[in-house]
Amino acid sequence: MFNTNMRKRFAAAAAMGAMLLGGALQSAMAQGAAPAAASKKNYKEGEFPLFDAVLKDIQPPNATKMIADLDAWAQKFPDSDYKAERTVLYVQAYSMNKEYAKAVDVAGPLLAGDIDAAFPEADSGPGYVIRALNFIFADMPLIPNPTPEEIATLQKAATLIENYNRQPAGIDAAAWDQAKTALKAAAKNAQLNVAVAPALAALQKGDCENAQTAFSKALMIYPQNTFISYQLGQAYMCTVRKTPAKNDEVRPKAIYEFIRTLEIDPTVAGTQDPTKLKPILEGMYVNYHGGSDGLDELKTHAKANPLPPDNFRIENASAVSAKKQAQFESQYPQLAMWLKIKGALAAADGQSYFDNQLKNAAVPKLKGTVVEGKPACRSKELIVAVPEPGQQNAQSVITLKLDAALTGKPEAGEIQWEGVPSAFAPDPFMLTMDTEKAKIEGLKTTPCAGAPPRPGVKKSAPKKK
Fold first, then answer.
1. Distance between CA 164 and CA 160 in Å, rounded?
2. 100 Cβ partners below 8 Å, 6+ apart?
3. 154, 185, 203: which is the final residue of a domain?
4. Please, what is the angle between helix 5-18 and helix 173-204, to 10°?
5. Are 366 and 416 in contact (CB under 8 A)?
6. Which of 184, 215, 315, 326 has the greatest number of beta carbons closer than 10 A?
7. Is the pTM of the predicted complex or chain greater than 0.90?
């Protein structure tokens, strides 16, 4: 079931990546404070105190005052040489004030142009660029419904950081690499969140089909992200719950994405316990298919392909059972017929079935194994078992009443016969059938041993020659 906390956790992960304000990234951002006196830009008379007041609002943070001080500065010096720096500080102020969309909107014009040209200073310029990018990456995951313009700003920021080589002054190469790595990770997290956010929103509203479309699109962009695979599976299950008639069409696709999730990252990007999730998701396949056959092949295919092929299907348990039954009936037609008869007799209404449908009805030829004859010699009845393939010591279930006694002793072995049911006992289970000796095939007999002498009668001595 969709967890409404997942999006918050997902966004938080992106924000944490961008808000790494310690170590190298903080040092790089710190370069974007007040430009040095050697800058080609110049403060107008009375401007620096306004600029300085804004910087003092950052620590301790006072977002409301910072915005007010920025407005005062912009109103008095609209064409300041430090307009670009002021824009970045607006981005920071709106972000501090949790006005995330405003922060990104303000940053948009900077990214639309040559941001490095806006900050040519070697000492402070890179710090301001990094500051702007940092807040864009941090704020985008926190905007519920970003506009196309905001998404475009994010993409430009992400492209910029991939190849950004202006190393801030006072930071060594190792620290600079650390800062860039953190920002690149934040950029990717922000892009991923923006890609997934519409799908999560649709799923939360129960808009199953649009959620499937959005998650599928995101998965093609981020094929190794199991958070997306898992949520796409949930979007398919959303349809199964809302439209049960589509179960056999949609559930296999959900199972596909769940199995892919297990094969790539069963923690689901750190949101799930794999020891609990694995039996649940694999159990979905087993329960639907009626067994684990085919699961290994599905794992291999799903791991290599983000989305299932067109018209993807998994045979459901009913179809598998019907196919196996058809194969069984084709291979063992007589046994299959007997098992149907036996099943009907063993049911709660078995006696009624016998009385109304089976008794005195001609039954097609059956096959079984002779267990014994009654009496043992010149038998008038044969006790028969009907073993299933590979079964040993099958229970006796049929008594054949013959039209005439055998001339010898019946041997154990396989026979075929035609007969008419005449009696039935449910416990112990026994069906009695009347049959003719001539209609029994494969029956073998051995001669009966001579009868023992009667008591008190002596054997006559052999005559002398």
1. 6
2. 94, 139, 140, 142, 143
3. 203
4. 160
5. yes
6. 215
7. no
- The three-point CA angle 130-131-135 to 5° equals 115
Same domain assignment for residues 255 and 198 = no
| Count of the separate structural domains present in the chain | 3
Contact 199, 221 (CB under 8 A): no
Torsion of CA 113, 116, 120, 123, to 10 degrees: 150
The tokens for 382 are 């044969």
* CB contact burial 368-384 (16+ within 10 A = b; e otherwise): bebbebeeebebebbbb
Strand partners, 416: 367, 441
Show the tokens assigned to 321: 């059972």
Q: Are 187 and 15 in contact (CB under 8 A)?
A: no
Query: Is the same domain home to 73 and 178?
Result: yes
The pair of structure tokens assigned to 205 is: 């509203």
Identify the helix (H) or strand (E) that includes residue 424: strand 413-426
Instruction: Tell me the residue type at 340.
Output: K
Q: Do 284 and 312 reside in the same domain of the chain?
A: yes
Give the single-character DSSP code of 393. S
Q: Are 294 and 323 in contact (CB under 8 A)?
A: no
Query: CB of 257 within 8 A of CB of 229?
Result: yes
